[in-house]
Amino acid sequence: MTENSTPKTIYLDQYQPPGWKVKQANLDFDLREGETLVKARLDIENSNAEESDMFLNGENLELVEISVNGSLLDESQYQVSERGLVLLKPPENFELETLTRIYPEKNTALEGLYRSTGMYCTQCEAEGFRKITWFPDRPDVMASFTTRVEADKSQYPVLLSNGNPADSGELDHGRHYAVWDDPFPKPSYLFALVAGDLKAVSGKHTTPSGREITLNIYIEAENIDKCDHALHSLINAMKWDEEKYGREYDLDIYNVVAVNDFNMGAMENKGLNIFNSKYVLARKDTATDRDFQGIEAVIAHEYFHNWTGNRITCRDWFQLSLKEGFTVFRDQCFSADMGSQHVKRIEDVRLLRAHQFAEDAGPMAHPVRPASYIEINNFYTVTVYEKGAEVVRMQANLLGAEKFRQATDLYFERFDGQAVTTEEFMGCMQDTLGRDMSQFQHWYDYAGTPELKVQGHYDVDKNCFDLTISQSCPDTPEQTGKPPFFIPFAVGLLGHQGNDLIGTSMLELTQPTQVFSFKNIDAEPVPSLLRGFSAPVKVSYQYTDDELMFLMENDTDGFARWDAAQQLSQRILLSMIRQHQHNKPLEVSSEFIEAFRNTLLDENSDKALLAEVITLPSESYLGDQMQQVDVDAIHLARKTLKQKVADTLYEDLLGVYQDNEVMGEYRITSDAIAR
Known about the structure:
Blueprint: E1 10-11, E2 20-32, E3 35-46, E4 54-57, E5 62-68, E6 71-72, E7 78-80, E8 84-87, E9 93-102, E10 112-116, E11 119-123, E12 143-152, E13 158-161, E14 164-170, E15 175-186, E16 193-196, E17 199-206, E18 212-219, H1 228-245, E19 253-259, E20 266-267, E21 272-276, H2 289-304, E22 313-314, H3 320-338, H4 341-361, E23 372-373, H5 382-399, H6 401-415, E24 419-420, H7 422-433, H8 442-445, E25 451-459, E26 464-472, E27 487-494, E28 505-509, E29 513-518, E30 526-529, E31 538-540, H9 545-554, H10 558-581, H11 590-600, H12 607-613, H13 619-624, H14 631-648, H15 650-659, H16 670-674
Parallel strand pairs: 2-12, 18-19, 19-21, 22-24, 25-31
Antiparallel strand pairs: 1-23, 2-3, 3-9, 4-8, 5-6, 5-9, 7-8, 10-11, 12-15, 13-16, 14-15, 17-18, 20-21, 25-26, 26-29, 27-28, 27-30
Helix pairs in contact: 1-2, 2-3, 3-4, 3-5, 4-5, 5-6, 6-7, 9-10, 9-11, 10-12, 10-14
């Protein structure tokens, strides 16, 4: 059995800081047909006197030559294995130079450097750089990189890497070279190289401090008319990050490359983002609104990583959500500001409930920050990304907008240029808030979706409304008997006229059961629960149909209004399914039709939100609510309800359609999409 055949479990609690650090990496790529030579010159220093040997990762590499401080090593001074290279007792500070041969054309795993459809490209996250050259390929080793790329000019006229362009020139035999310098220390997973026959769509952005940034989107020539939206989205993302987080871009140039064969959706390599083409290319006559929104979100996500992932990165891969959860939260907020706040929140919740809740309830349930892994690529999950974003959102909810900005400013100031942990991120929140948040750590450490049982009681004599809330979290693989979570639970109370009696109150759930009292309430209210989906939890409250219809028509919180409509529609559809199964006629209450009509004709609400509120639950979602899925009954019930609404509200629906018809040229705006 070979060394790589035995899976090795990596444990969070066994983390050890690197014994050796790379201060500067100078790479030279000689791209030729059939093979590539990589010369790496690394400035290395010992950071742990107890570690006398140095290990560098390396897989599928042919070592041609190796020297330390200019002297060639003999085989007694190093060892090569399938996992990497060990230098035996090197000096405390030294320059390591290696010459390595790799075969990008044969790299079908598309990790490291590969060649596909006439283009060289890289993918190094999480552990691809070790397939390019020998290096301590771990995120807490951060080095400045200078990269020289040489290739045939006719085949590869564009040569790109991280950082700013430093030099370029012509060589003999129709070859040329380019040198790129990235002065900001980064881990090896953020290295990138692209060589190909590409064209650029370019733009400019001026930062608040007056620096002019050149923006380039590189694509194949036939796609040059499909990049305008991506470029516009990038400029909007840069402006948004400057305004919301005070983060300016740091290099002189920002390059994006669209690759048809890129195996990840997109990758945030420093100064050289690489995207699958579907997240860059779009034209109004062929793309949908959803395509344009997806491009806007992914372009922004990768740009936002420049600070939340690149300038500050993960200490180890257990901390993956440190960069991904925070950056997903940031791209969600950006998309909400570019479009409809309510609808973006609903879309995020719909994805979370459909996929992450299912992951939390299944055999693959794992915490946002797992305690162990065998293969890190298996943890690029909705739990790490989307639930991780919800964990950041909860912290933002607890602090409020002003203090959250103070906390993130502190985070950027305190940890710029470092590889850190979720505890250090939370420490900035705790220091800003000025209170102990250790219980909140449970969100990172435990798998599972907390479940809340909520009961309401109105005391007529005391004009007081009580909410009794109990929390629990189901057992998940290897985790039982979980302690209470720290849950920010946003609630409102609606009076009989639909008025907000208390605004939105953020309750803090920290105990198995708590009672919250609201005084001076003149009549029994209807509670609006989990406003804004303030925490990734399941809520059980025994609403009547009338209360759900009331919330559907009157709730001032967009998410809670949509959620009430979904609960009500689901309840009606499941009832119709049972009617069909018992050979009874399918009935729809006139009260529901009237609530639907009032919502449809609401002229004071966000049109995009109304479109979501009147959308019925999908057939697949209804199936998830049944122990035995009756496909025919589900389809018939949903079809019948839609037909009943259409027949009864024909004139209203036709009027709304005509009022929202777009005349003239269609523009990609939030208002046009809402129509």
